[in-house]
Design a protein that fits this description.
It is built from 2 helices and no strands. It is mainly α. The protein is rod-shaped, with a radius of gyration of 19 Å. The protein has one domain (1-83). The two termini are 13 Å apart. Helix content is 94%, strand content 0%. Helix 1 packs antiparallel against helix 2 (45-84). Keywords: Membrane, Transmembrane, Transmembrane helix. The chain crosses the membrane at residues 12-32, 47-66. Pfam families: DUF8151. Residues 1-78 form the DUF8151 domain.
Length: 85
């Protein structure tokens, strides 16, 4: 039983890293977009546009990480474990 859990550990760590990475990037994107909105309110449109673009890039990277890395690995993990049972 222990050897079975040890074989799953690298895959679970990999899934956790990609899932948490996507979550953190989304949070960073929200924070940067809030910063961009506050800069509009304080009368600094150039900084606001720059921050909005950076926030959009964080959201884009988060989406790509979730769809290109996390989802296929999760599906592969679930399929492999369904075959074991």
């Amino acid at each position: 039983m222990t050897s079975g859990l040890l074989t799953l550990l690298p895959e679970l760590v990999e899934l956790a890293v990609f899932g948490l990475g996507s979550l953190v990037l989304s949070g960073v994107g929200v924070y940067i977009e809030q910063f961009a909105l506050s800069m509009v309110g304080s009368g600094q449109p150039e900084l606001s546009v720059w921050a909005a673009v950076m926030g959009a890039m964080a959201f884009g990277f988060s989406y790509l990480l979730a769809t290109d890395q996390f989802r296929p690995r999760l599906q592969r993990f679930l399929d492999a474990n369904a075959d074991r049972q």
